């Protein structure tokens, strides 16, 4: 990767980078072909500021993807996947993920270089999801014979459909309850 080790940024430089990344998400969500100049204008910084922080457009997109992946990993960790009761963890993680994915849809849709930190974070999130599903199975919330890889795919699909098809502006907790209920119970009769 040939890059110098990253030094911690000063607080003002960190705010500037955060503003650039937030603007990049907004601008690129609306127009994936937007220029660095358009992103700089939306961030309220000079074009040279962006070029000083990001050598080229792809470096900015990579940084955006990494920032979003870190936020997603933190959202999953905040759900206490290893210690909270599985139903609580699943609900909290789902609500947290909906918030992050809703705010960073472009960045989280960027395919990560398989050797990148962002890709490693996504892999870890996938393993954590399986861990929570295993814990749910141990608590008899999921059938003992359930294919957990399939359950994870269905869960991810429910998250995606909720994010792309939600028109009722429900809050993340309400949406999380709907997703978890659908994952665990489907649409079959209850009784």
Automatic annotation (TrEMBL):
<dbReference type="InterPro" id="IPR009057">
    <property type="entry name" value="Homeodomain-like_sf"/>
</dbReference>
<protein>
    <submittedName>
        <fullName>TetR/AcrR family transcriptional regulator</fullName>
    </submittedName>
</protein>
<dbReference type="InterPro" id="IPR050109">
    <property type="entry name" value="HTH-type_TetR-like_transc_reg"/>
</dbReference>
<dbReference type="GO" id="GO:0003700">
    <property type="term" value="F:DNA-binding transcription factor activity"/>
</dbReference>
<dbReference type="InterPro" id="IPR001647">
    <property type="entry name" value="HTH_TetR"/>
</dbReference>
<feature type="DNA-binding region" description="H-T-H motif">
    <location>
        <begin position="35"/>
        <end position="54"/>
    </location>
</feature>
<dbReference type="GO" id="GO:0000976">
    <property type="term" value="F:transcription cis-regulatory region binding"/>
</dbReference>
<keyword id="KW-0805">Transcription regulation</keyword>
<keyword id="KW-0804">Transcription</keyword>
<keyword id="KW-0238">DNA-binding</keyword>
<dbReference type="Pfam" id="PF00440">
    <property type="entry name" value="TetR_N"/>
</dbReference>
<feature type="domain" description="HTH tetR-type">
    <location>
        <begin position="14"/>
        <end position="72"/>
    </location>
</feature>
């Amino acid at each position: 990767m040939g890059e110098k080790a990253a030094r911690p940024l000063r607080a003002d430089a960190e705010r500037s980078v955060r503003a650039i990344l937030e603007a990049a998400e907004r601008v690129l969500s609306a127009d994936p072909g937007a220029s660095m100049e358009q992103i700089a204008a939306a961030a309220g910084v000079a074009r040279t500021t962006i070029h000083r922080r990001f050598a080229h457009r792809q470096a900015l997109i990579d940084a955006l993807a990494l920032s979003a992946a870190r936020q997603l990993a933190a959202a999953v960790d905040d759900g206490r996947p290893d210690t909270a009761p599985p139903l609580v963890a699943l609900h909290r993680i789902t609500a947290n993920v909906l918030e992050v994915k809703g705010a960073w849809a472009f960045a989280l849709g960027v395919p990560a270089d398989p050797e990148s930190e962002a890709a490693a974070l996504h892999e870890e999130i996938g393993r954590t999801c399986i861990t929570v599903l295993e814990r749910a199975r141990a608590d008899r919330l999921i059938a003992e014979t359930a294919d957990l890889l399939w359950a994870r795919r269905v869960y991810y699909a429910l998250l995606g459909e909720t994010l792309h098809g939600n028109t009722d502006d429900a809050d993340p907790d309400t949406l999380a309850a709907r997703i978890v209920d659908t994952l665990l119970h489907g649409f079959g009769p209850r009784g």
